[in-house]
Write a structure and sequence with these properties.
With 928 residues, this protein is α/β, with parallel strands linked by helices. The chain has 31 helices and 32 strands. Residues 16-342 form the Glycoside hydrolase family 3 N-terminal domain.
Length: 928
């Protein structure tokens, strides 16, 4: 027995209980077995992984989970079991029930739809459904970047090969899971996106990139997701790493990967979950007992053992031996225990665990989720090329002409009624599989389906076009006489491929048929060819000899139904290739000019609100100001500031694709914000808005300069300085801005005023310098303040102060004076909920509910010797006022670079930072 701190249940004094909470285990079978019951009751295992082998239907799953939780409750577990599930959609869904659980596109399919908000809605819908049957931990989102996209088995499970796009969609999905109440687990750290299958003796894939290369690409989405503070767990992979600075056989067993890279460098404080330690290579090389200890030593908090009871007992024994041999300290055990319990408290409770809503909730939400699924699949279908205008088929073919469908032999996806029927029929195949396939399907027990997987596609297509359809499969045996005969009969041939870059026989077969069609067309015969990639879009993405090429991103029944709707003209596909391929295709569109209109509040306010929400979901953590920006923040209605705002919009749907706010005051034209819908970037919307905004400002009488960034309203004080804004900086540079001489600004905070105390001796230093302070409200006593601002601040800061002094109930100005009552500094003080908070997002209270007091735009005479002390004094007076107004937190807004050091010394933290730029109008002479 060990002595615990008061934050843990006394039960955990028994190390056996603590060790049990560090294991996540599974089993084969759809009912509770004596073995899994024993693990929960006698070995106190606190987390369960459910797979497709455990789950038959939503109702059975809810009953199974409820039974597992009841066993744990009766066995005295202080907290419910974590119930984990892979439910990525596309081809990876452990739970399938066509009556209650909806199927959605894969991660890459969602990215093809070009809408991060769709990814959020899909994730929330998925999480709501699995939560209804008792699941509380979803193993997602996938945060891997497909660095070598064409040859990676991860395929459409990943978003794309663009780290920023992966971040955007990954964070959107994570927010969806979280808002539905589930815990989240990013995967597969450090990356499964660029693996080399070297056929090593370990029989595992290897990462060969250097840490520097990983940092610039693969690690970016993990870093961004961690920075949001919402990622509960991280799944650490079992791949090897070989580069000059690291030689690791299994990432999840390496302290270089888990403790050093994940925790120390990326700052992750959540639960680290190991890859399944039942890997054959690990068992043969190290043994499960030692491997389990190594995983915990490396920094893993939950060790995964998928199904074998004898191996699971071996792992438990290994952890106990690790403690006995003093390889593992009790401190290390309890550190992991606390992390796991913290995650449990965030996603479950005994009332939830023992009484999941089950079928009653699923029945209620199914219609709306089914509609979302249909829309998502329709939006994801992507036509890469249709050079001969073959689509839709009912316009390029007569009804009596024969259509030939050629499909490969593939493994059915778990999310498929066909899979269930095949499993029940036990129609198994002994076909040899490559190392790639072993890796992809190592935990799924997938089987070959013969011709069955696409049979319903053929039937649906025949019904939809009311015409004759011929259908046969093809294999690695190539083009056979049966294929040649059918090709001669048909007017149009559709070839389906599934990962042809890795199943090279499919690529060879398709090219052979394409050549046959070309030769037959040369003799005057009609031989149209359509190629459909139903998994990786990269099969023929760059091969322009394939004139009509369609991508579906998975081959579930829902995807195939959307394909039929596309082929028959029932929908017009809008999807686009993800990542760098999308960008390369959009270069042609970059010269597009969009209609820019004046912003109309009555017409556009709803669209602007939706745009801001989409931006908030897709933004980097450092751009937190987007979370609290409202549509009212942009319009000042100030007689001293001219304002003109512009939009690019869809006049049919009223959706805003972009928004730009501009202001003009005393010879300075200012861009106060420029936003583009994340799903519409790289289409020249921002460029069209930017050009229209500058042209309007350049036409103002007396304009002398242009400014990028604004203090009032303070939505966009300038270009953010974090790493995620480098692309933004390049964009403005290419748009004519000289970015050499920025004014660097920051927002700072004291997050917990209750525990903050002023630095010792600060007040005495201020008094010795004979600096005094007073607080004024209203405009009557403000003449000296405005004189000071005229000399030392921008015109919009002058108007910021004027607005604050007009709000006599919640705002005031503190004046700092030196000898002889000479005014040397000023600052605005705001109580929570002031009128200024509506225009400065950082002053808005966060969701946590802490009231935020504001200290805004301190302006100190720069030449005076005591400038730093005056600044500290103004900040101190502001904090005192904020405390008096019951603020739980202080935000010090619009701080210039030279004032950072003295304020950091007082205990303020930097919240975010920006660079404001001012250029001569001459930079844009072509606008005149």
């Amino acid at each position: 027995m060990v002595k615990l701190d008061g934050d843990l249940d006394p039960l955990f004094q028994d190390l056996d209980w603590a060790i049990g909470q560090m294991l996540i285990m599974g089993w084969d079978g759809t009912e509770v077995t004596p073995q899994i019951r024993n693990l929960i009751e006698d070995h106190h295992v606190g987390s369960i992984l459910l797979t497709a082998k455990n789950l038959k239907s939503a109702q059975q799953t809810a009953k199974l989970v409820q039974e597992l939780q009841t066993i744990a409750h009766q066995a005295g577990h202080p907290e419910p079991l974590l119930i984990a599930l892979d439910q990525e959609n596309g081809g990876v869904n452990s739970l399938y029930d066509e009556d209650y659980i909806c199927q959605f596109p894969s991660a890459m399919g969602q990215a093809a739809a070009g809408n991060a908000d769709l990814a959020y809605k899909v994730a929330k819908a998925t999480a709501t459904e699995v939560s209804a049957v008792g699941v509380n931990l979803v193993l997602g989102p996938v945060l891997d970047v497909l660095t070598n996209a064409r040859y990676q088995p991860l395929g459409v499970r990943a978003t794309s090969d663009d780290p920023q796009e992966v971040s955007q969609y990954g964070i959107a999905a994570m927010n969806g899971y979280k808002d539905a109440g589930l815990a989240t687990c990013g995967k597969h750290f450090p990356s499964y996106g660029n693996l080399d299958f070297l056929g090593s003796s370990l029989d595992i894939p290897i990462i060969t990139q250097t840490l520097e290369e990983l940092s610039l690409s693969a690690l970016v989405p993990f870093r961004n997701a961690i920075a949001t503070g919402k990622l509960d767990a991280m799944f650490v992979g079992g791949c090897g790493i070989t580069n000059p600075s690291m030689n690791v056989n299994h990432a999840c067993l390496s302290d270089q990967v888990v403790d050093d890279l994940l925790r120390n460098e990326l700052g992750f404080t959540g639960v680290a979950i190991s890859e399944c330690l039942e890997m054959e290579a690990l068992r043969n090389e190290i043994g499960v007992k030692t491997g389990t200890v190594m995983a915990v030593e490396a920094g893993c908090d939950l060790v995964l053992l998928c199904r074998a009871y004898d191996v699971q007992l071996e792992a438990i024994s290994g952890l106990k031996l690790g403690v006995e041999n003093e390889l593992l300290t009790t401190d290390r055990i309890y550190t992991s225990l606390r992390r796991v319990l913290r995650m449990k408290k965030s996603c479950t409770s005994w009332p939830q665990a023992l009484n999941p809503p089950g079928i009653s909730l699923l029945s209620k939400i199914h219609p709306s989720h089914h509609a979302l699924s249909l829309n998502a699949y329709d939006d994801s279908i992507t036509v890469i090329r249709d050079n001969e205008k073959l689509l839709p088929l009912n316009e390029s073919m007569h009804q009596e002409e024969e259509l030939l469908l050629l499909t490969p032999l593939v493994k059915p996806l778990p999310a498929s009624s066909l899979t269930k029927s095949i499993l029940e029929a036990k129609n198994k195949s002994d076909a040899a599989v490559s190392m790639h396939e072993k890796w992809v399907h190592r935990d799924r027990g997938a089987i070959m389906s013969g011709e069955g997987v696409f049979r319903e596609l053929g039937r649906s297509l025949a019904r939809a076009r009311h015409g004759k359809l011929l259908h046969t499969s093809y294999t690695a045996n190539g083009v056979r006489p049966v294929h040649e005969n059918l090709i001669h009969r048909a007017s149009c041939i559709i070839i389906v491929t599934a990962d042809a870059n890795r199943n090279l026989y499919q690529a060879g077969f398709t090219k052979h048929v394409s050549m046959m069609c070309s030769m037959l067309r040369a003799t005057g015969q009609k031989k149209s060819l359509v190629v459909v990639a139903v998994s990786s879009p990269y099969d023929f993405a760059m091969d322009k000899s394939i004139g009509t090429y369609i991508c579906t991103f998975d081959f579930t029944e829902m995807a195939m139904a959307a394909l039929v709707r596309t082929l028959c003209g029932h929908i017009k596909p809008q999807g686009s290739l993800p990542g760098t391929l999308r960008k390369s295709r959009k270069v042609v569109k970059s010269r597009q000019h969009w209609l820019v209109e004046a912003y109309n509040r009555d017409r556009d306010a709803r669209g602007l609100s939706d745009l801001l929400q989409s931006l908030a979901r897709a933004s980097a953590p450092a751009h937190g100001f987007l979370q609290t920006t409202t549509v009212d923040a942009f319009e000042l209605f100030n007689p001293n500031i001219e304002e003109s705002h512009f939009v690019v919009r869809n006049s049919s749907t009223q959706a805003l694709y972009g928004f730009c706010s501009t202001y003009y005051i005393q010879g300075t034209g200012i861009i106060g914000s420029l936003f583009v819908d994340p799903t519409k970037r790289n289409l020249s919307i921002g460029r069209s808005l930017h050009r229209r905004a500058l042209r309007g400002l350049a036409q103002k009488r007396g304009v002398k300069k242009m400014q990028l960034g604004m203090a009032f309203p303070g939505i966009f004080p300038g270009i953010p300085t974090d790493d995620s804004a480098q692309g933004l900086k390049t964009w403005f540079l290419n748009s004519g801005w000289d970015l050499q001489f920025p004014r660097r600004l920051a927002n700072m905070t004291i997050p917990d005023l209750a525990t903050w105390t002023a630095p010792e001796g600060l007040l005495q230093s201020i008094q010795r310098a004979s600096i005094s302070f007073d607080l004024i409200h209203g405009l009557d006593n403000a003449e000296s303040v405005f004189t000071h601002l005229t000399a030392h601040a921008n015109p919009e800061v002058y108007e910021l102060y004027r607005s604050a002094l007009q709000d006599t109930k919640s705002c005031g100005v503190v004046r700092a004076k030196s000898h002889g009552e000479v005014l040397i500094g000023t600052v605005i003080i705001c109580s929570p909920g002031s009128s200024l908070a509506g225009f400065i997002p950082s002053l808005q209270s966060p969701r946590s509910g802490h009231l935020v007091g504001g200290i805004v735009a301190p302006i100190v005479t720069p030449s005076m010797p005591q400038a730093s002390l005056a600044m500290q004094g103004l900040a101190l007076m502001g904090v005192r006022q904020n405390k008096a107004h019951k603020s739980g937190r202080t935000v010090l807004s619009w701080i210039q670079e030279e004032s950072l050091e003295p304020l950091l010394a007082m205990g303020f933290d930097v919240l975010d930072s920006f660079e404001e730029f001012t250029n001569a109008v001459d930079n844009w002479q072509d606008l005149a």
